[in-house]
Amino acid sequence: MIVIASCPGHISGYFRRVSVPGNGVRGSTGAGIVIDPGVMVTVTRADRTAVSIRKRTSRRSVQIADRSPPIESALRTIGATAQVVTECHLPIGAGFGLSAAALLATLTAVNRLEGLGLEPHEIARVAHETEVAHRTGLGDVSACQAGGRVVRRSAGIDGEILRFSDMPGPIHTVSFGPISTPSVLGSNEQMERVQRAFPENEPRSAEEFFRISRTFAEKSGLVTPEVERVLTACAAEGIPASMTMLGNGVFAYGARAHAVLRQFGEVSTCTMARHGARIIEVLP
Predict the structure, then answer these.
(1) Is residue 38 within 8 Å of residue 6, measured between CB atoms?
(2) What is the CATH number for 78?
(3) Pairing mode, if any, of strands 83-88 and 50-56?
(4) Mean of the per-residue pLDDT values for the chain?
(5) Less CB within 10 Å around the terminal CB: N or C of the chain?
């Protein structure tokens, strides 16, 4: 049997790490956009887990890694093994929540492959705890349980999340390479700056979301010179834009954003997702 599953990614505009002593809740609050395309995963039965991470270009699919410690760890947690091939169109490690998407899609597919009977909530719990343990994310799994522009009011997969379907237009992105998520999340000094930059008010519209996110990016000290140049150009044209968290890149909203971003590099285009992880196909 072959099972194919997909999961959207997530662009975080701003975030704050949260750890609640006593009840074990760890994660983050903040706001972002759940995006398509995310990650497509194909799984088949195997006696030992093997993972291939692939990046899809306009012409071909290229393997960029032959291991994924988070995926391997998550499969051990549910007591399963499989051959896993993940494929994405967006840059990896650039703030698109692809590690969370890969975990959710893989666990969803393996659950079907092996008939484990895990509910979506349990799959999300394992994916979230794996992300936090490997310092690859704090709130992406929570967001990617469904679609929309999201405001995460409390941490963890059971936290309060507001979802809005108010971004029908294209979301354009440009990336200048990855930012090491573990190094940022593991730096007490950097995380203190992030905590201080967290906004007091929630965004009531997409426009407010971009404005608040950009202010957060600047106050947090995460903005790079490349990102600053793109944000300045977008502001001059009145285009809503901010920095992808955590990635050395920019995401901007609306059709006019493409022309501005393409001056700085290759542009990827996505849309607001309206669903979470799901099975795409099951082949005998």
Answers:
(1) yes
(2) 3.30.230.120
(3) parallel
(4) 93
(5) C
Q: How far is CA 257 from the centre of its chain?
A: 21
| Structure-derived torsion over alpha carbons of residues 65, 68, 69, 70, reported in degrees to the nearest 10 | 150
Retrieve residue 102's tokens. 């890969």
CA atoms of 126 and 123, how far apart (whole Å): 5
Q: How far apart are CA 15 and CA 216, in angstroms?
A: 9
pLDDT band at 110 (very low <50, low <70, confident <90, very high): very high
**Number of domains observed in the structure of the chain:** 1
pLDDT digits (tens, 9 = 90+) for 161-197: 999 999 999 999 999 987 776 677 777 788 888 899 9
pLDDT at 128 over 80: yes
Amino acid (one-letter) located at 117: G
**52: which strand partners?**
85
Specify whether the CB–CB gap between 30 and 152 falls below 8 A.
yes
Mean pLDDT of 76-90: 96
Least confident window among 18-27, 89-98, 118-127, 145-154: 18-27
Tell me: pLDDT of 8 over 60: yes
Tokens 């499969």 sit at which residue?
75
Whether this model's pTM surpasses 0.85: yes
- Per residue in 40-51, pLDDT (tens digit) is 999 999 999 999
Q: Name the residue with tokens 């799901």.
A: 278
